[in-house]
Design goal:
The complex is a heterotrimer of chains A (about 80), B (about 350) and C (about 375). With about 80 residues, chain A is of the alpha+beta class. Chain A is about 30% helix and about 40% strand. In chain A, a hairpin with a 2-residue loop joins strand 4 and strand 5. In chain B, the strands form 3 sheets. Chain B has a 7-stranded mixed β-sheet, with helices on both faces. The chains are: A alpha+beta (about 80), B alpha+beta (about 350), C alpha/beta (about 375). Chains in contact: A-B, A-C, B-C.
Chain lengths: ~80, ~350, ~375
């Protein structure tokens, strides 16, 4: 049961809800499962609920890791 | 002698009732006060059950389509203009110039006259803009509960020039596959209006009459092999149909298929694949490799083909698979649509 | 789309593919199971297998909650939908699941049963509020991603004193299913697991530690995008090479060791674990399913409508190999009815129904690999 997408919170709404934006599409979702969400945060959205906030530093670190594989390879090739 | 007083139709608060379909005065009034002024042409004004016209001595093309879309009104269009565009396009996909349309209405008892007028005027506007008049028609009314408001069937006739042989069975290995613009717009626009899905988007239906684009394409490449508009079932279904008809396979390049960013996002949210989402103003073209560049240029030069792109090629394949190189670098099959494209959560 | 497109980058994919190819020892086989149906779908849709060396093989696990729903539970849902004055609200995924006698929720709907599709359980609540004269039953399925939302809905219903809302609970637990796979007799040789993405955002990474410890199998939790899956595969290959069996987390941007405490507490308030629960194709698995606690009995469709729910267990079709496929013993193409009688349009078994099912994924995206282009299709 996995189809969940990261979307950005663009407004908080009464009743523990928020308006999120994904690539220009907007949807109202429930924040009942997460605390301390602020406008601008990214959340993982599943069946109309935010399941978790996205840690942007970790996201950047993960992507950097992928990119670093390229450098490591280039260095190995140069050494060969 | 004074003329009888007939109360004019109440478009503000009135509704369709059974008398409007019974062939009597009420129906005649509906024709007089709504259909005639809206469509406004010499054929209809003669008030016959049929229209007569001469056709230049060429091959004729005919097509028919029934329209049952729900909701009736959606961003970018409504069932009326959809009905006009849809049949014009079906005729045009033979490389033909559409000439005349017929329109049949099945109305549900209780359907608001005001909404009917909106639909009919939208049809009339679409027909006028396309220069393809609605020359005859029919109206029936069914009891409340037996129709979804309104169903419209349009039939169109046109003519096609000698030497133009466009058919779904003409794709050959080596041919190139082109699409006239972004895919999935119409389906997303419709879904965004279904209340329970509750997402907001600025995406509008791409409903459009494509015969002008087709004329430009046929002029540039008279030897065009295939044309089809990917409506229900989306691009994937249309390509599979063509592959099956022609007995060939296809290889697509996902990165080359144009999809508007918001359509992509909406599909992501709902778990839909844009390849299977309906279009109402796009076409797929298949031509010989040597003609592809010229065809693409002709498409891009036309207002309805600005985002046209070459998306793949036809190959030999007895299994008739449509395969795609994903933007990620892997391979996958693009299969027929299964059932209805329902939003998934899995 | 932010945090989506970057994780689908083809250039970065080549980097990771190269790294995997270098790390994978040529003389070894690496058999890795991706447990989560979303991963099965991603692997098929993006063609990830094509970027892996031939000795790294992905085996599709039973992480598709639609696929593992027993026939008897669908029969029960249909019976609930047919009950006079009742509306069954369901996620779209269940509509085409084959039940007994060629039935499905979609067919029952066509025959007049009140079945409504929803994107969120919130819609079922809204319907119950709007129509106090109707019984609204929510068909609750899914792993620990979907369970917290159901918990929120049940608590809302109680707080509002709704009298006509109930849940037909079929929520299942991920770690229990993983254990059942590993415990299965004649266990399929597995070298490691790609752990679920979004289930893990809720339950955290700690629940998987027992697999590493007790079974000696490495687990790498992977994000939902194809780059995440590839990176997790790479990390698993390294663990196997090093002889390690640890829980690692690739999806650090959304998964922490403890998960979402608030969601876990809400689940715990509303649900308790059943002693056993039947899974289609896998049989009964102990402590693998949820039911509503006694204090929420008023919202439990099983207690409110026992007649409709008490459906006898129904065996799977004789020719259906879903059980073996769900356990990773067989591949879709090994099943006699795959692609012939059993297709996405006419599914015989669970694996063909959901687009995440191993058979459906292979049929829709991968079966071109089964026959060479020049051969006639059988």
């Amino acid at each position: 049961m996995c189809l969940a997408v990261p979307a950005q919170v663009i407004a908080l709404r009464p009743g523990d809800a928020a308006l999120v934006d994904l690539g220009g599409v907007r949807k109202e979702i429930s924040l009942a499962l997460v605390d301390g969400v602020a406008v601008g945060d990214y959340v993982i959205v599943h069946v109309g609920f935010a399941l978790q906030t996205l840690d942007r530093d970790e996201a950047a670190r993960t992507l950097a890791l992928f990119a670093a594989l390229d450098e490591a390879h280039a260095v190995r090739e140069a050494d060969a | 002698m004074k003329a009888d007083y007939i109360r004019p139709l109440d478009f503000r608060a009135g509704c369709v009732d059974m008398t409007h379909g019974s062939g009597g005065r009420a129906m005649a009034q509906l024709v007089d006060e709504l259909f005639l002024p809206a469509f406004d042409n010499a054929w209809l004004s003669r008030l016959n059950d049929q229209a007569q016209f001469t056709v230049p001595g060429r091959r004729m093309v005919m097509s028919t389509d029934s329209h049952v879309v729900s909701p009736l009104f959606f961003p970018g269009g409504d069932i009326g203009c959809l009905a006009v565009h849809g049949t014009i396009n079906d005729v045009a996909m033979a490389g033909a110039a559409p000439l005349y349309l017929a329109a049949g209405f099945v109305l549900e008892e209780g359907f608001p006259l005001g909404e009917l007028r909106r639909i009919v005027e939208s049809m009339a506007e679409a027909a006028r803009a396309a220069r393809v008049p609605v020359v005859c028609g029919d109206t029936k009314v069914v009891q409340k509960g037996k129709g979804d408001g309104v169903f419209i069937t349009t039939t169109g006739v046109g003519v096609v020039a000698d030497g133009v042989e466009i058919s779904g069975d003409r794709a050959r290995p080596g041919d190139r596959i082109l699409v006239s613009g972004t895919i999935g717009d119409h389906g997303v626009a419709i879904l965004s209006h279904r209340e329970n899905l509750g997402f907001e988007t600025t995406i509008r239906s791409d409903t459009a009459a494509l015969h002008g684009l087709v004329a430009a394409m046929v002029e540039a490449v008279p030897g065009l092999h295939c044309l089809r508009d990917p409506t229900r079932g989306g691009l994937a279904t249309t390509l599979n149909e063509l592959a099956r008809q022609s007995g060939v396979g296809m290889r697509l390049d996902e990165a080359a298929i144009p999809v508007a960013p918001e359509v992509s996002a909406a599909c992501e949210l709902l778990g839909l694949d844009p390849l299977y989402v309906a279009n109402e103003g796009k076409l797929v073209a298949i031509c010989a490799a040597g003609d592809a560049e010229r065809l693409l240029a002709a498409m891009r030069a036309h207002p309805l083909g600005g985002s046209a792109a070459q998306i793949g090629e036809v190959v030999e394949d007895a299994r008739r698979f449509v395969q795609m190189r994903t933007a990620f670098g892997g391979q996958r099959v693009v299969d027929w649509l299964t059932g209805e494209p329902l939003p998934r959560i899995c | 789309m932010r945090y989506i497109d970057e994780f689908r980058d083809a250039g970065l994919a080549r980097n990771i593919a190269r790294a995997i190819a270098q790390a994978a020892q040529p003389a070894r086989e690496y058999r890795l199971m991706e447990f989560c149906g979303g991963h099965t779908h991603a692997i098929a849709r993006y063609g990830v297998q094509d970027l892996l060396p031939p000795n790294v093989r992905m085996i599709h696990g039973p992480g598709c909650p639609v696929c593992v729903l027993p026939i008897a539970r669908i029969d029960a849902a249909i019976a609930l939908a047919r009950r006079p004055g009742t509306t069954l609200v369901t996620y779209a995924d269940t509509l085409r699941v084959p039940a007994s006698g060629g039935q499905s929720l979609l067919r029952a709907k066509a025959q007049g049963a009140d079945v409504r599709m929803a994107y969120s359980v919130a819609e079922a609540l809204a319907l119950a509020r709007a129509q106090p004269g109707r019984e609204v039953v929510f068909f609750a399925i899914g792993f620990e991603t979907t369970t917290p939302p159901t918990a929120v809905a049940v608590r809302c219903a109680r707080a509002e004193g709704l009298k006509n809302f109930s849940v037909f609970c079929n929520h299942v637990l991920t770690p229990a299913a993983m254990a059942a796979i590993l415990d299965a007799p004649g266990g399929v040789p597995l070298d490691g697991f790609v752990g679920p993405a979004h289930v893990s955002t809720v339950i955290g990474s700690r629940p998987y530690e027992r697999f590493a410890r007790e079974y000696g199998k490495p687990v790498v939790i992977a994000g939902f995008e194809p780059l995440d899956v590839m990176q997790a595969i790479r990390m698993l290959v390294h663990q196997v090479n090093d002889g390690r069996a640890e829980v690692e987390n690739e999806f650090t941007r959304a998964v922490t060791p403890d998960g979402n405490r608030k969601a876990i507490d809400l689940m715990d308030d509303v649900f308790e674990t059943r002693e056993r629960f039947a899974w289609r194709g896998l049989g009964e698995i102990p402590r693998s399913g949820f039911r509503l606690r006694e204090r929420y009995a008023a919202f439990d469709a099983e207690r409110r409508f026992p007649a409709e729910v008490a459906a006898a267990p129904v065996p799977d079709h004789k020719a259906c190999e879903c059980g073996a496929i769900l356990r990773g013993h067989k591949r879709p193409q090994d099943c006699k009815v795959f692609g012939t009688v059993c297709t996405p349009d006419n599914p015989i078994g669970a694996c063909m129904v959901s687009s995440e099912g191993a058979c459906a994924a292979h049929y829709s995206y991968g079966r071109y690999r089964d026959t060479a282009p020049t051969q006639e299709a059988a």
